[in-house]
Design brief:
Belongs to the cytochrome P450 family. By secondary structure, the chain is α+β, with helices and mostly antiparallel strands. It contains 17 helices and 14 strands. The chain binds protoporphyrin IX containing FE. The site of protoporphyrin IX containing FE has 28 residues, from helix 12, helix 13 and helix 17.
């Protein structure tokens, strides 16, 4: 592929189709890291922003959470979508999840769910996660010798885990799956409900209606689950506002699902493409923890978050004015040559592996331990039973600037 010009490279970040073409995306990011690591991107329909592509700069910005704020622009969206979401918020029906908030409110809201993601809660959930991992590996065996791994396996397993943690009934599985895909795959034609801001808001409204009913029921009859902790969570002695409560469900249901699906399918794809690493792992399953980290680095399911400068400041000598936004390019940070030896090599034993796939600082992924456990359970179940595996067609990536990965991974395999 020819070297992109500076302007082409920067614009790629604000072009959903580029995320469906790994080679094009990485050529642009490699070029930016080397030549323009704090790049101005002006590519309508998005409002302009600074693209931050170096690992150290992304960490420094996330660490300075009183200077670089999540409000009012936590992620990249077309200007008209930004405006529609703002209007919705002003009308009292908006989405304000943990990722939209800043401290001190953010810290208080985060604390309400935090216990459910600590090691003790994870240990309690492990039996259920292992059981689900086995269920899906058994399913692979039963539907073999070919399947679309994303559609048949990876999409279902993490959603079941999240629904279990929340305490929701399995019957609600299809409805949740459709809504999370419509919400996070919003820019990809295959998954979106429609292409207008109204369509996105309709998805949000459906989410809100479902979870409003759940809140009412958990307040009337509290249970021992995360849904109940959220419904009855208090800040400074008061129940959380409707917007904060409903948004909490939305972030848990959606952040815990597509991300892990993308990490599992991206991880399996990497193992297929690197049969030596697959064999190495199968022969030494003690490498599973480092292998899981490497799969998460490799897939980088969350492509970006944004922050907005509260004051005039500088990054790497480039002046950022108050009110301007920075785009934290996790995909780029995770291939930064200054941090990772041979960053384009998939290495199941990579250690250290300071990837940024879970972000950094006060917003560090609340579900990181859960995601790691899910992946560990799944591959620990699958690999000893996997006798052969190869691609049975062309894998396809989703076209989205936010959460994304493989949307199809056709495989031919034999599972005992
Ligand atoms: C491999 C899978 C996952 C990846 C790659 C991932 C990635 C991320 C990233 C990049 C952030 C933002 C961090 C920042 O701004 O510094 C985040 C936040 C978050 N994630 Fe995850 N995540 C994954 C799985 C999960 C799971 C399983 C859950 C469970 C519910 C979850 C829940 C959350 C929540 C609630 C936040 C917001 C935290 C806050 O703003 O304080 N994630 N995640």
């Amino acid at each position: 592929m020819s070297t992109p010009t500076m302007d082409e490279a920067a614009k790629v970040l604000a072009d959903p189709s580029a995320y469906a073409d790994d080679e094009r995306l990485h050529a642009a990011l490699t070029h930016l890291r080397a030549n323009n690591p704090v790049a101005w991107v002006d590519n309508p329909p998005y409002r302009p922003f600074w693209a931050i592509t170096k690992h150290a700069d992304i960490m420094a910005i996330e660490r300075a959470n009183d200077l670089f704020l999540s409000e009012p622009r936590p992620l990249l969206a077309a200007a008209e979508v930004d405006d529609a979401l703002k209007a919705q918020m002003e009308a009292g029906m908006g989405l304000r999840t943990l990722i939209h908030m800043d401290d001190p409110h953010h810290r208080k809201v985060r604390a309400i769910g935090a216990d459910w993601f600590r090691p003790k809660a994870m240990r309690a959930l492990k039996v259920r996660v292992d059981e689900l991992a086995k269920r899906y590996v058994d399913k692979m065996r039963d539907i073999g010798p070919e399947c679309d791994f994303v559609e048949e396996i990876a999409v279902n397993f993490p959603l079941y885990v999240i629904l279990s943690l929340l305490g929701l009934p399995e019957d609600d599985f299809p409805r949740m799956m459709k809504l999370t895909q419509e919400m996070f795959g919003g820019q990809d034609a295959e998954h979106q409900r429609g292409d207008s801001p109204e369509d996105l808001l309709a998805v949000l409204t459906d989410f809100f209606n479902y979870f409003s009913a759940l809140t009412a029921s958990r307040r009337a009859n509290p249970t021992e689950d995360l849904a109940s902790a959220i419904a009855n969570g208090r800040i400074d002695g008061e129940l959380m506002s409707d917007v904060d409560t409903l948004s909490y469900y939305v972030i848990v249901a959606s952040a815990g699902h597509d991300t892990t699906k993308d990490a599992i399918s991206g991880g399996l794809h990497a193992l297929i493409e690197n049969p030596g690493e697959l064999k190495r792992l199968q022969e030494n399953m003690n490498l599973m923890p480092t292998a899981v980290e490497e799969m998460i680095r490799w897939a980088t399911p969350v492509k970006e978050f944004m922050r907005t400068a509260a004051e005039d400041t500088e990054v790497r000598g480039v002046r950022i004015a108050k009110g301007e936004s920075v785009y934290l390019a996790y995909v780029s940070g995770n291939r930064d040559e200054e941090i990772f030896d041979d960053p384009f090599r998939f290495d199941v034993g990579r250690d250290p592996n300071k990837h940024l796939s879970f972000g950094y600082g006060v917003h560090f992924c609340l579900g990181a331990a859960l995601a790691r456990m899910e992946m560990n359970s799944f591959f620990t179940e699958l690999l000893p039973r996997l006798e052969s595996i190869e691609l049975a067609g062309k894998p396809e990536l989703s076209a989205t600037t936010f959460v994304g990965g493989l949307k199809h991974l056709p495989i031919r395999y034999s599972v005992r």
